[in-house]
Amino acid sequence: MLRAAFTTKPTEGGRRWRRLFLLLGGVVLLYGLLAPLTSLDALQSAGFPLLADKLWFRIATATAMFVVLASAWNLVGGLTGYAAFGNVAFFGIGAYTCGMLISRAHWPLFLALPLAPLASAAFAALVGVPLLRLRGHYFAVASLGVGVAVGEVIQNVEYRGTPVFGGSTGLFLPIFSVDNRDLVFYFLMVGAAALTIGVTWLVLRRRFGYGLIAIRENE
Amino acid sequence: MVNFLQLLVLGLLAGGVYVGVGVGFGLVWGVLNIVNLAHGALVMVGGYLTWTLFTRLGLDPFLSLPLDALLLFTIGYLLQRGVINRVIRAPLLFTFLLTFGVNLVVINLLLLLFKSDFRSVTPSYAGAGLELGVLVIPFTRLGALVVALLLAAGLAFVLNRTRTGLAIQAVGADRDAAQLVGIDLRHTYALTFALGAACAGVAGGLITLIQAITPTAGEPYTLQAFVVVILGGLGRVTATVAGGLLFGLIEVFGQSIPGSGSVYANAIAFGLLVLVLILRPQGLMGRLR
Amino acid sequence: MRSRSSVLLVVAALLSFACGGTAGTGGTSTGATITFGAPLGLTGSLTKESTLTQQGYDLWVDWINQQGGINIDGVKHPVKVKYYDDTSSANQSAVLMQKLITEDKVNFLLGPYGSAATATDAAIAEQNQVPMVEANGAAQAIFNQGYKYTFGVLSPANKYLQGVVDMAATLTPKPTSIFMLSADDNFSLEVANAVRDYAPSKGFTVTLQKYKNGSTNLAAEVQAAKAANPDIVMNSGHLLEAIAINKAAKEYKLNSKLFAYSVGPSTPDFINSLGKDANYVYDGSQWTPQVKYKPSFYLTESQYVDAYHKKYPGAGDPDYHVAESTAACLAFQKALENAKSTDPKKVRDALAKLDVMTFFGQIKFDSRGINTYKPMVVEQIQNGQHHTVFPTDVADVKPMYPTPAWDQR
User: What are the φ and ψ backbone dihedral angles of C92, each rounded to 5 degrees?
Assistant: First the structure.
């Protein structure tokens, strides 16, 4: 995958560094997948040291989330070169879709979860039609404008006097009751990261990905 | 009717600040093709200088504006020559990243020097204003508008009637051709950025009269400079003036929508921005590039 | 890493106490140090208010450590507070609170400043089942979530300007119209909506105009107020907006018989920034130095004011943010004494049953965890000084009403 994006052949020294990076990355990945398992009760009572406490999970889940966000942005900004500054709107729409389904319609989490990407994708398709006609700086600013506007609308829109999406208080979701909650959410996020990276990899192998890079090089 | 007139006045007065912030930003963008994300932070530097001179020496804020311009001119020149010049021909993303980094550095330097307390400048004539019947026009804001317009006029004069200004425009039009006729590219780049920064400094001085400042208060101004330049159009100072005044009017009228509608003022401004970009990307008065 | 060494420090301290054994006077032994954790907005937009909160906590820590510590079942436990700066960001506050619990292993939690941060922190306290007593988050949204581990010693948001409405109903000539400006964060909206719902019962008409939280250019809103020509102008927001509105009111000659702001006028910064223009402004206050409660423990009102002057000379009188923060500590102190243990669940239950009178007023929590038993008072700034003007049994002067026009001052 990395090779497809390189335009120069890696040197012998470069290959050594790359191998080192891959090794390091593999170690970190392994740790990231195995350490949280030490928080399971079964392993705790067997005497394993706790390598992942609540704070660890909080930070690690946030890290995985940023991997998802960065990879997703990379598909537009990195591959095609279109500097999209309003992608946070998609994050918000996904979050609110899921949140509203859970808090207002009382859907269970795993039913609401798949709808989030669908809603964001639909919005992106809608907004992309006019927006993608612009180039360079203009696209960047327009995208930013969409991002800000969406945030403002979601925060302020009211129906009969009460904010539809919870206003500035936000949506309070019930604390998800499941054993090893932190572990579950952590692996969900890691799964999302794996999914995003997998999609990027697939795109790069296909003609579609080639087309995107071609756009960046010379539209 | 009176209410409408007063709102009109308020809008133009608010627009004055936006003009001040927008002209420098637009200059750098138009000529150097650099979107300076640190613009708001530079505005705050000017604001803090005005505040310091007012608090320590009792210098009237309007009198400190030339000093703001001087300080920011120097800072801008050195910044461009030393740092930003490295990404002058790089892809868009790199200029964004670099100026974003500069933004963070400037903000944190200001935080170190001044802490995050809010500072404001209240000269003796602060509450007073011109009263035309029922219309009230506060002196400070009127002064800000006048100065901003003078600033824009001055910038336009420099750009159109001086050799340096013409050199800047030449570089903006075609940098290779400009080099062929003997214009020192690096010096001109730095000069342009310095002029933009000087405008930012003056805008900062004006802003301290109107609101309390803190190191992070510059962020919204960078965003608003974006909107102003796009609304008015890239390329001409007069376009930015039009954009700034228009933005001020939109904001004030948006904020006066009764009840809950007023919180949409920002959303309206950005919605309008997106619309303008889609329908007429060159803005009200600009040239398409 | 810094956090690792601070954990070692606490562990070392605990070990030394365990080995040290008896160390106090009068036969009471010294127990393990009790550590409280508090993330505060020491930098950022909430600096001023957070600093006042920290002052309130520190005043109590000095006093209790002078006594040797909290007396739990005969053993005195010294107290320490660990602070982190959340840069006035609610998300950061939540992360830091988790850090305090997991890494610094604090025993209990003291609240941050502001309803936004308190709301996110309450969720963390609940998830970790560590009791938190807060004094600076009055939005009822926090307490309607069914959290069992968060307690608020202050009166809830909806009461902030109710006192002003009650007072206004007693004034002559009686005002009848209120123009309510409100920022759009949840605390300010709660205050504003409470006035909108309550005032008509006292014979007022209310017009509500919202603006973006954190705005400093409020000329258009002041103009809207001017166009409505109301008897009373109120603002629901924080210190910055209150200052901006007052300045704009003077600039644009917005006159009214009564100006009342929910937060801001009680802080020393308000008078410092505005000078003479701060006069005649009212605010709803959680506490003033003039209230007359008979405390059952800790200091009286005047002793408290003296202690504040001694520790923070030059800062003037303590405002209610300082007092309410101290009250949060007092709640913990009493609860720990009553529970006779530092076990989180026992302390939580003791807090739920708490009912005690202090210099701050009655501290008792309703079933949701907020203190609905303490009344708010109304303050007015007269000639650069704060005075309590309502209710009449704690007032030290009469309100200066109506407010004269700007050019007649």
Answer: -65, -40
Which domain does B73 fall in, by range? 8-124+136-216
Domains in chain B, number:
1
Encode A106-154 in three state secondary structure. CCCHHHHCCHHHHHHHHHHHHHHHHHCCCCHHHHHHHHHHHHHHHHHHH
Decide if B254 is inside a domain.
no
CA dist., res. A197 & res. A195, Å (int):
6
Least confident window among A5-19, A99-113, C380-394? A5-19
This prediction's pTM: 0.78
Question: Quick check: C5 pLDDT over 90?
Answer: no
Q: Which of C374, C372, C375 is nearest to C391 (CA)?
A: C375
- Regarding whether C307 and C164 lie in a shared domain, the answer is no
- Find the CATH number of the domain harbouring C54: 3.40.50.2300
Contact B44, B75 (CB under 8 A): no
Structure token digits, residue B53: 């001179």
Please indicate, yes or no, if residue C403 is contained in any of the structural domains.
yes
Do residue B92 and residue A148 have CB atoms under 8 angstroms apart?
no
Q: Which of B129, B131, B255 sits opposite C220 (nearest CB)?
A: B255
Q: Both C130 and C97 in a single domain?
A: yes
Inter-chain residue contact B277 with A141, CB threshold 8 Å: yes
Examine residue B272 and state whether it is found in any structural domain, yes or no: no
pLDDT at residue B23, as a whole number? 94
Instruction: Determine how many CB atoms are found less than 10 A away from the CB of residue C23.
Output: 12
Domain count, chain C: 2
φ/ψ (deg, to 5) at B254: -65, -40
The whole-number pLDDT of residue C13 equals 43
* Among candidates A133, A137, A145 on the partner chain, residue whose Cβ is nearest the Cβ of B273: A145
Instruction: Determine the structural domain holding residue C329 and report its residue range.
Output: 30-156+291-364
Question: Are residues C186 and C232 both part of a single domain?
Answer: yes
Residues C303 and C224 in one domain: no
Assess whether C257 and C388 both reside in one domain. yes
Closest residue, chain A, to C98 (C-alpha): A55
| Strand C282-285 relative to strand C377-382, pairing | antiparallel
Q: Give the closest residue to B74 by CA, choosing from B202, B195, B222, B207.
A: B195
Residues C225 and C295 in one domain: no
Give the residue from B210, B204, B73 showing the smallest Cα distance to B139.
B210
In chain A, residues with a C-beta closer than 8 Å to the C-beta of C90 are none
| In a domain? residue B283 | no
> How distant, in Å, are the alpha carbons of B45, B84, B243, B248, C67 from that of B39?
10, 13, 17, 19, 54
Strands C232-236 and C355-358: unpaired
Pair (C85, C212) in one structural domain:
no
pLDDT for A157-189, tens place per residue?
Answer: 887 777 788 777 778 888 788 888 888 999 999
Chain A residues close to C141, C-beta within 8 Å: 169, 172
What length is written for chain A?
A: 219
| Structure-block tokens of residue B46 | 């000017």
Does residue C275 lie within any of the structural domains? yes
Q: Could you say which of C207, C221, C252 has the minimum Cβ distance to residue B136? A: C252
Q: Which residue has the tokens 């307690």?
A: C151
Residues C129 and C141 in one domain: yes
**CB distance C101 to C35 below 8 Å:** no
DSSP state of B211: S
Is C269 domain-assigned?
A: yes
Nearest to C159 by CA among C391, C394, C380: C391
pLDDT at C20 over 70: no
Residues 6+ apart with CB under 8 A from B11: B245, B248, B249, B250, B251, B252, B253
Residue in C239, C206, C235, C200 with CA at minimum distance from that of residue C221 = C235
Which ipTM score applies to this complex? 0.76
DSSP per-residue letters across C335-394: HHHHHTS--HHHHHHHHHT-EEEETTEEEE--TTSB--SS--EEEEEETTEEEEEESTTT
Question: Would B67 be classed as within a structural domain?
Answer: yes
